[in-house]
Write a structure and sequence with these properties.
By secondary structure, the protein is an alpha+beta fold. The protein has a single domain, classed as Aminopeptidase. It is about 25% helix and about 30% strand. It is built from four helices and nine strands; from the N terminus they run βααβββαβαββββ. Helix 1 (about 10-20) runs antiparallel to helix 2. The N and C termini lie far apart (about 35 Å). This is GNAT family N-acetyltransferase. GO terms for molecular function: acyltransferase activity, transferring groups other than amino-acyl groups.
């Protein structure tokens, strides 16, 4: 297993992997088609995909993680958003997602990124030090599902904003 930065030749495989990972996801409306693959592509096209990592086995890409800059109180920050995170169904539960998260966080810390936020399952992401922060919020989202992890300094106070790639249809 190897984790590395994405290459242009990976884009098609990342798109397919992300689509399959989120197809019939329990947090989607029944019958809804996934859009997470479109988010990654729009972030890439807007040059806002700050860190895009793949995990591959001997033959294929089996996991992908994306990080992109966020706004805090409408201003640029030194914080990023994690997501989406995708792992092939046959490799889920084998530590691939965990390895991608840990590697990604170490890369961001080395780049002097101060912290990371995400929208996800508290039971999963708590093991990496993510937790709900009352002073850092995302409008319209239950607080327990919006989590943050400081990589340096303290957690800022304010409202988080994601790039428009997350909201386009």
């Amino acid at each position: 297993m190897e984790i590395r930065a994405e290459k242009v030749s990976d884009i098609e495989n990342i798109t397919a992997l992300t689509y399959r990972t989120f197809e019939n996801h329990p947090h989607h409306e029944p019958g809804a088609k996934p859009t997470e693959h479109l988010i990654v592509n729009r972030l890439r096209e807007a040059n806002m995909l700050a860190l895009s990592l793949v995990c591959e086995d001997e033959n294929n890409i089996i996991g992908h993680i994306a990080f992109s800059p966020i706004l805090i109180n409408g201003k640029q920050s030194t914080w990023y958003g994690l997501g989406p995170l995708s792992v092939t169904s046959e490799h889920q539960g084998k530590g691939i997602g965990s390895a991608l998260i840990r590697f990604g966080l170490s890369q961001l810390k080395a780049q002097d990124i101060e912290g990371v936020v995400l929208l996800g399952e508290p039971q999963y992401y708590a093991r990496f030090g993510f937790e709900s922060q009352p002073n850092l919020t995302l409008a319209g989202v239950p607080a327990e599902y919006f989590m943050a992890k400081a990589l340096a300094n303290n957690i800022p106070k304010g409202e988080v904003g994601y790039h428009s790639a997350f909201f386009e249809s």
